[in-house]
Amino acid sequence: MAYFYFFRHDTNCNWLMKEVKEVYPQYLFEPVEYRGRRVKFYVILDWVFRVNRGANMDWIKEFGGNYVRSFEELPQGAGIFITGYDSDVRELQQARERGIPIIDRACPWVRQFRKQLESMNTQKEQAVIMIDKGHMVYDCYKSIFPPDSIFILPSNYKDEIAAQKDPAKSLRLIVYTVFRKKDAENAERFIREHYPHPDNNLEGYKKSLCVWTKQGLVEEMEEEIPRYNLEQIWIICSSEVDRSTKSLINEAREHRCEARIIKHRDDIPASVAADARVGVLMAPIPMPKKAVEIKEIIKQRFSRK
């Protein structure tokens, strides 16, 4: 008989969900009092969303808060609500110069990533930055990346560092929030072994890796995949190229599990082999109600009675 394991720690980021429940309702529906006048605040989608990653548009529409596509589309007299992925550095500076009202609720771990960038001594240090090019945060922060930055991923850090290392500088490892801790540790270990320098700064990721990476899902996968001999991991998500989802895919594949992406009800297999051993989890990006319904359908269709 097929066996299904439903992961217990596949919850959304605890910090973000608290923001959604307690802070978003204060600012993102009706105009609010702000320094003596009524202001309607908006999220700027260009700062939090790309076609295949970031904020889930179905969830945003379901949530119903105020948003505009771009900074240029912000209505006259409106304010900006900064959330999650922070803001485009140059556009935010323009907003401040224009006196546009701003509520700053950026993710503190994304902001820590930025703080590490801005505190560099670029004359003596070279940044090794683990982030996906084309990610919202990459685009928002591109004006503050040092020109000689080495951009790496878990799959290519050895080659990229070897090809671009400036022998006259120490290295600072800066890791975007939703990579796995082991991804950062692998890059740190490689630099320590092959590019030692008394002024290397390699442990900043301990401050920038976000709440989600510490909520236990990766550790649960490490323990339960071998314990139950799982062969497939079904990942309920909106995009397989979102970085947190890619981290889960990488974890599954490292355990020699097939990672199957479930975006819609029609993606759920009608049946599985009698001896199939499957794990089911949801990606951490806030998902519309249909995602929860998908998980319930899988439970009803395949769980043991």
Key phrases:
four-stranded parallel β-sheet, Cobalt-precorrin-4 Transmethylase, domain 1, Rossmann fold, alpha/beta, 3 domains, 305 residues
Poorly predicted runs? none
Main sheet summary: 4 strands, parallel
How many domains would you count in the coordinates?
Answer: 3
| Record field, number of beta strands | 15
CATH structural architecture of the largest domain: 3-Layer(aba) Sandwich
> How large is the count of helical segments?
12
Strand order of the largest sheet: 1-15-13-14
pLDDT averaged residue by residue: 93
Gyration radius, rounded: 21 Å
- How is the CATH topology of the largest domain named? Cobalt-precorrin-4 Transmethylase, domain 1
Fraction of residues in helices? 25-40%
**Which of globular, elongated, flat, extended, rod-shaped describes the shape?**
flat
User: Strand portion, in percent?
Assistant: 15-25%
How would you characterize the overall build of this protein?
The protein is an alpha/beta fold. The protein is 36% helix and 19% strand. It contains 12 helices and 15 strands. A 4-stranded parallel β-sheet has the order 1-15-13-14, with helices on both faces. The protein has a 4-stranded parallel β-sheet with strand order 7-4-8-9, with no helix packed on it. It has a 3-stranded parallel β-sheet with strand order 11-10-12, with helices on both faces. The longest helix has 14 residues, at 181-194. The mean pLDDT is 93.
